[in-house]
Amino acid sequence: MTSETSEISESGAQGAPPVERRLHFLTPLRRAWVPIAAILGVAVQQGENIAEWVTALSLLLRAVALISLVLVFGLYGFLSWWFTHYAVTDTELRIRSGLLFRRTAHIRLDRIQAIDVTRPLLARVAGVAKLRLDVIGTDAKDELAFLSEDDAGRLRAELLARAAGFTPAEAVALGEAPERELLRVTPQDLAVSMLLTLSAWAAIIGGLTAPVAVWWLSSNPWAAAAALLPMLGAVWSGSAGRFLTEYDWTVAESPDGLRLDHGLLDRAHETVPPGRVQSVRIVEPLLWRRRGWVRVELSVAGSHNDVLVPVATRAAAHAVVARVLPGVDLAGLVFAPSPRRGSRWVVPVWWKGYGLAVSEDVFATRKGRLCRRTEIVPHAKVQSVRYSQGPWERACGVADVHVDTGANGTVTARLRPAAEAAGLLHAQAARSRTSRASARPDRWMT
Questions:
Q1: How confident is the model at residue 205 (pLDDT cuts 50, 70, 90)?
Q2: DSSP code of residue 38
Q3: pTM summary value
Q4: SS3 state at 42
Q5: Which residues pair with 258 in a beta bridge?
């Protein structure tokens, strides 16, 4: 299957307008589903009235109505595709769209955080893919849906090279950067890790018992059904949905960052640019510790990708983390626990789970006893440092130190001795200022 591209202006000479291209010619089929879904929603809501209207029509009028709807939806999809173009200039990706209300998105190349290629099941059958862009300062992702798989790969490579600082001619010539596989999670390990996750079992048990309890208390089956639907969503998300999403998880290293490929039905190809990771979280559920397994999550400003490794041995996970936090020795971090005196009166029993480690490169905290979470923030990524102490903490002689990152996240060192926390506040601010001054630029490939 070939992609359809159409040049509406020629470029090449200096100062000429950029070449604008259209999306894949199968895109109208996807866009026609928007009004179809809206009609189906109305039909479900007004089912009885619509059934009466339909039965009142003759067979000929029903056929005419059906054909008219198909033509209207098809025309909408075609016009929506026809009026959508994209172009890559020296400084930005420009996307023009909109049938009645025109919209032009100007995406600066130096603000691109990551570019993901996703291939839903039907798109894989048709040989097309969707390009999703994470941009600094925006919560919603801009996307190009759909392109042929080859065009999506080429455009992604070109945009990443441009964002990394290569000239337009170099970016086109570079093509897809080579990669080297670092880690692959087998389906067996993923399935076993989910069976050993207490939160997944809690979601399943809660999803089964809560609707029954609602039915028993209210004697109303509709109330039980209303409670069941969100519960089923939570159970699906934490069990089968997670397995399908994290199936065949592969981490590979390339010059444009770490590449993550995963998914059984919908395949996703994501990139984690080095130097833009704001913080890393290592999660160790209780039943994983005998196997030495951990889960690695991360925060990247402007990105919604939050999983780096769904499950792996501690040594393998540390090796992957070393790629996104170069020079950081996680095994060498020594955590100082919160003091028994004072802490045990603020957070009884669970205070033993808190710890703090500060190295030359990172600020790290630990919390949790059943599920232990270790959060690591490079000093260069710290945006602000805060000191807090409530009345009860003041009476007990302890305080908290909060470190804010660029991904709207906060890592907190809880229950530190008050004098230590005050000193840590000023020392951390100085370390962050010094580290930012010497940090590498975000243009990571040059």
A1: confident
A2: H
A3: 0.78
A4: helix
A5: 253, 272
